[in-house]
Amino acid sequence: MSDLGQSVAAAAARVEAGDPDRFAATMAVPAEERARLWPLYAANLEIARAPWASSEPMVAEMRLQWWVDALEALAEQGHEPRHEIGAALVPLRAAAPHLVALAEARRRDCWNEPFADAAELSTYLGETSGNLFRAAGAVFGADAAAQAVLARFGAAAGLAAWFRAVPELLARGRAPLPEVAPEAISGLARAALAELDAARRALRRAPAPVRRAMLPGWQAPAVLRLAARAPERVAQDGLGLSEFSRRFGLLRAALTI
């Protein structure tokens, strides 16, 4: 196996172990597209983990800075990051600026900064999850308009993932929501559902690989509908779906996207 092949395989293994939902979504796309998505999602996983690498914010931010520097070098000079997945990232140079922006947004995770209001949470989700979906579009040659729509979709899907993570974040001493009133949570969920629907409609004529970049958000509609209907569950159980619902939802999304 070539160095590139080994790097792609390492990226796939990291996603399978650390992000099983995104792994399942990637397995639902054509095989030739997966080699471009595995390293993207593996990099996202490493970036997301960096702020939790130490209880000391400065140490955690140093870990995160390594990724910022490596991805900037990739974006600006095409340099391969010195990492197990580095070779697999080189063909994704067009997506590197979006990963840099994502990594920069993760700095607030190092310092446990609460969100001042819903707008600040929305901005964070756009800069993290939104930029990841934007990067997936860039990988497949989406134009700027389509990338912007994918970013909106990603921010809305990111809220669903954030809701699911709330119990763990609370257990770690974080304050993940700017408002905990049920009506505030319901309002956020309904607004995100509208964004998902608008993004799908906007991309209905986009090339198939660009549409498939939305697949990792397959659980978002069900999670957000549940949050809108039973907002008290956000802090209680993270709105986890049954295995049947997960599998059926992914199958339906893969067939209709």
TrEMBL record:
InterPro entries assigned to the protein according to its UniProt record, in alphabetical order: Isoprenoid_synthase_dom_sf, Squ/phyt_synthse
Pfam families: SQS_PSY (PF00494)
Recorded superkingdom: Bacteria
Protein name per the record: Phytoene synthase
Organism in which the protein naturally occurs: Paenirhodobacter hankyongi
